[in-house]
Amino acid sequence: MRFAGMQGESVTQGFTRGVRLGVDVGQVRVGVAKCDPDGILASPVVTVARDQQADGDKIPADMAELARLAEEHEAVEVVVGLPVALNGREGVAAGHVRAYVERLGAVVAPRPVVLSDERMSTVVASRRLSERGVRGRRQRAVVDQAAAVEILQGWLDAQRRQT
Protein backbone atom coordinates (compact mmCIF):
# COMPACT_ATOMS: atom_id res chain seq x y z
CA MET A 1 0.00 0.00 0.00
CA ARG A 2 1.30 3.43 -0.91
CA PHE A 3 -0.01 6.86 -0.12
CA ALA A 4 -0.01 9.71 -2.59
CA GLY A 5 -0.24 13.32 -1.64
CA MET A 6 1.18 13.64 1.87
CA GLN A 7 4.70 14.36 3.03
CA GLY A 8 6.77 11.49 4.35
CA GLU A 9 5.03 8.76 2.38
CA SER A 10 5.99 7.29 -0.96
CA VAL A 11 4.34 8.27 -4.21
CA THR A 12 4.12 6.15 -7.33
CA GLN A 13 7.25 6.86 -9.40
CA GLY A 14 6.64 7.31 -13.10
CA PHE A 15 3.31 6.58 -14.67
CA THR A 16 2.57 3.13 -16.00
CA ARG A 17 -0.13 3.07 -18.64
CA GLY A 18 -3.33 1.30 -17.61
CA VAL A 19 -6.82 1.64 -16.21
CA ARG A 20 -7.11 2.54 -12.56
CA LEU A 21 -10.08 2.31 -10.25
CA GLY A 22 -10.85 5.16 -7.89
CA VAL A 23 -12.68 4.26 -4.69
CA ASP A 24 -14.55 6.42 -2.18
CA VAL A 25 -15.15 4.32 0.95
CA GLY A 26 -18.11 5.39 3.04
CA GLN A 27 -19.84 3.82 6.02
CA VAL A 28 -22.86 2.81 3.91
CA ARG A 29 -21.70 2.88 0.27
CA VAL A 30 -18.54 2.61 -1.81
CA GLY A 31 -18.29 4.81 -4.89
CA VAL A 32 -16.24 3.52 -7.81
CA ALA A 33 -14.73 5.36 -10.76
CA LYS A 34 -12.26 4.38 -13.47
CA CYS A 35 -9.92 6.16 -15.82
CA ASP A 36 -8.88 5.55 -19.39
CA PRO A 37 -5.61 3.65 -19.94
CA ASP A 38 -3.72 6.90 -20.56
CA GLY A 39 -4.84 8.32 -17.22
CA ILE A 40 -6.43 11.43 -18.71
CA LEU A 41 -10.02 11.31 -17.50
CA ALA A 42 -11.81 9.64 -14.59
CA SER A 43 -15.45 8.66 -15.02
CA PRO A 44 -18.08 7.15 -12.70
CA VAL A 45 -18.69 3.39 -12.70
CA VAL A 46 -21.01 2.26 -9.90
CA THR A 47 -22.02 2.61 -6.27
CA VAL A 48 -21.70 -0.55 -4.18
CA ALA A 49 -23.39 -1.16 -0.82
CA ARG A 50 -20.95 -1.74 2.05
CA ASP A 51 -21.04 -5.23 3.51
CA GLN A 52 -20.65 -4.70 7.25
CA GLN A 53 -21.95 -8.19 8.10
CA ALA A 54 -19.15 -10.34 6.66
CA ASP A 55 -17.54 -12.71 9.14
CA GLY A 56 -13.81 -12.52 9.82
CA ASP A 57 -12.69 -15.06 7.19
CA LYS A 58 -15.35 -14.26 4.58
CA ILE A 59 -14.57 -11.61 1.96
CA PRO A 60 -17.11 -8.77 2.27
CA ALA A 61 -19.40 -8.50 -0.77
CA ASP A 62 -18.29 -4.93 -1.51
CA MET A 63 -14.63 -5.96 -1.65
CA ALA A 64 -15.47 -8.97 -3.81
CA GLU A 65 -17.28 -6.61 -6.18
CA LEU A 66 -14.26 -4.26 -6.26
CA ALA A 67 -12.05 -7.23 -7.13
CA ARG A 68 -14.48 -8.24 -9.87
CA LEU A 69 -14.52 -4.70 -11.27
CA ALA A 70 -10.72 -4.52 -11.17
CA GLU A 71 -10.58 -7.76 -13.14
CA GLU A 72 -13.31 -6.71 -15.59
CA HIS A 73 -11.66 -3.36 -16.33
CA GLU A 74 -8.16 -4.87 -16.23
CA ALA A 75 -7.14 -2.28 -13.63
CA VAL A 76 -3.43 -1.97 -12.90
CA GLU A 77 -3.97 -0.14 -9.62
CA VAL A 78 -6.69 0.83 -7.14
CA VAL A 79 -6.68 4.38 -5.73
CA VAL A 80 -8.60 4.79 -2.47
CA GLY A 81 -9.43 8.15 -0.93
CA LEU A 82 -8.09 8.78 2.57
CA PRO A 83 -10.22 11.28 4.51
CA VAL A 84 -7.75 13.75 5.99
CA ALA A 85 -8.88 16.76 8.02
CA LEU A 86 -8.24 20.24 6.64
CA ASN A 87 -5.39 20.62 9.12
CA GLY A 88 -3.72 17.52 7.63
CA ARG A 89 -4.43 15.21 10.54
CA GLU A 90 -6.07 11.82 10.28
CA GLY A 91 -9.15 11.16 12.34
CA VAL A 92 -11.33 8.16 13.09
CA ALA A 93 -12.65 7.96 9.51
CA ALA A 94 -9.08 7.73 8.16
CA GLY A 95 -8.43 4.83 10.53
CA HIS A 96 -11.49 3.01 9.18
CA VAL A 97 -10.33 3.57 5.59
CA ARG A 98 -6.81 2.35 6.40
CA ALA A 99 -8.26 -0.84 7.90
CA TYR A 100 -10.51 -1.27 4.84
CA VAL A 101 -7.54 -0.79 2.49
CA GLU A 102 -5.46 -3.31 4.42
CA ARG A 103 -8.09 -5.95 3.82
CA LEU A 104 -8.86 -4.81 0.26
CA GLY A 105 -5.18 -5.11 -0.66
CA ALA A 106 -5.31 -8.85 -0.01
CA VAL A 107 -8.51 -9.22 -2.03
CA VAL A 108 -7.33 -7.37 -5.16
CA ALA A 109 -3.72 -8.61 -5.07
CA PRO A 110 -1.46 -8.53 -6.99
CA ARG A 111 -2.80 -5.09 -7.94
CA PRO A 112 -1.38 -2.37 -5.71
CA VAL A 113 -3.73 -0.26 -3.62
CA VAL A 114 -2.66 3.34 -3.03
CA LEU A 115 -4.13 5.94 -0.72
CA SER A 116 -4.76 9.46 -1.92
CA ASP A 117 -5.73 12.54 0.08
CA GLU A 118 -9.45 12.99 -0.47
CA ARG A 119 -9.97 16.21 1.44
CA MET A 120 -13.29 17.72 0.44
CA SER A 121 -13.98 15.20 -2.37
CA THR A 122 -17.57 14.53 -1.31
CA VAL A 123 -18.23 18.24 -0.74
CA VAL A 124 -16.87 19.11 -4.19
CA ALA A 125 -18.80 16.23 -5.78
CA SER A 126 -22.05 17.31 -4.10
CA ARG A 127 -21.53 20.91 -5.20
CA ARG A 128 -20.85 19.90 -8.81
CA LEU A 129 -23.92 17.68 -8.90
CA SER A 130 -26.07 20.48 -7.45
CA GLU A 131 -24.74 22.90 -10.07
CA ARG A 132 -25.92 20.42 -12.71
CA GLY A 133 -29.38 20.24 -11.16
CA VAL A 134 -28.92 16.84 -9.51
CA ARG A 135 -30.39 17.08 -6.02
CA GLY A 136 -32.05 15.07 -3.27
CA ARG A 137 -32.56 11.35 -3.80
CA ARG A 138 -30.97 11.42 -7.27
CA GLN A 139 -27.85 13.06 -5.82
CA ARG A 140 -27.54 10.54 -2.98
CA ALA A 141 -27.61 7.75 -5.55
CA VAL A 142 -24.54 9.06 -7.42
CA VAL A 143 -22.58 11.28 -5.02
CA ASP A 144 -20.28 8.40 -4.00
CA GLN A 145 -19.41 7.74 -7.64
CA ALA A 146 -18.81 11.46 -8.17
CA ALA A 147 -16.54 11.54 -5.09
CA ALA A 148 -14.62 8.55 -6.48
CA VAL A 149 -14.18 10.51 -9.73
CA GLU A 150 -12.81 13.49 -7.75
CA ILE A 151 -10.38 11.22 -5.86
CA LEU A 152 -9.12 9.46 -8.97
CA GLN A 153 -8.91 12.61 -11.11
CA GLY A 154 -6.98 14.40 -8.36
CA TRP A 155 -4.56 11.49 -8.10
CA LEU A 156 -4.10 11.34 -11.88
CA ASP A 157 -3.45 15.09 -12.06
CA ALA A 158 -0.89 14.81 -9.24
CA GLN A 159 0.90 11.99 -11.09
CA ARG A 160 1.08 14.11 -14.24
CA ARG A 161 2.59 17.00 -12.29
CA GLN A 162 5.33 14.70 -10.96
CA THR A 163 6.40 13.23 -14.28
Automatic annotation (TrEMBL):
One MF annotation (Gene Ontology) recorded for this entry: nuclease activity
The keyword RNA-binding belongs to this UniProt entry's keyword annotation: no
CDD domains: YqgF
GO cellular component, one term: cytosol
GO biological process: rRNA 5'-end processing
Localisation per UniProt entry: Cytoplasm
Coiled coil regions in record: none
EC annotation from Swiss-Prot or TrEMBL: 3.1.-.-
The YqgF/RNase H-like domain, residue ranges: 18-125
Pfam families associated with the record: RuvX
Alphabetical list of SUPFAM superfamilies matching this protein: Ribonuclease H-like
Classification via InterPro entries: RNaseH-like_sf, YqgF, YqgF/RNaseH-like_dom, YqgF/RNaseH-like_dom_sf
SMART domains: YqgFc
Segment forming the signal sequence: none
Family: Belongs to the YqgF HJR family.
Function: Could be a nuclease involved in processing of the 5'-end of pre-16S rRNA.
Protein name in UniProt: Putative pre-16S rRNA nuclease
Organism of this sequence: Actinoplanes cyaneus
